[in-house]
Design a protein that fits this description.
The protein has 177 residues and is mainly alpha-helical. Helices cover 76% and strands 0% of the residues. The chain has helices at 2-9, 13-34, 38-55, 65-84, 91-98, 106-109, 112-117, 121-132, 137-144, 148-176. It contains ten helices and no strands.
Length: 177
Amino acid sequence: MEELIERAKKGDTQAFTNLILKNQTKLYKIAKVRLKNESDIEDVVQETMIILYTKLLKLRDNTKFDIWLYRILIHQCYEKYRKSKLKLVSLETIQNEKNYSQEMQLEDKLDYEKILDMFSHQEQTILLLYYSNGYTTKQIAEILHQNENTIKTKLRRMRMKIKDTWERGKENNESIR
């Protein structure tokens, strides 16, 4: 990856294209957590690629490329969110509107997107970076400008919340039978 970055810095368009292709899916997933509108997600990913192209030479340490790229993306998401003044709907409101029934299968309750909906945007980003992209708590702390212990604590709390939700769903299914 570092060689690819170095070639892109020297103006190799194929190397730059390969960098984009290698990171496009990860960027999309993170942007999707932050923004719900598909066109906003595409805009943010595209803006991130433009910034990448214009500022790649400023990257001093090629080993920090991923962290640098995700910081750019998250900043672009915040900017898009701020500009469009999206109104976020709380999890409680979503649950009330959807009128969940106790007959729902446990698998339906705990699918990936519903698990993500249980958490704030920042927590969703942490989950995606940790579980989907394989980043360490230290790397996530760097990306989000937070203390590593804060990230560890948030991960532990999120795991407990998922476990509690799973156990409640399991109990509900058993009481239905």
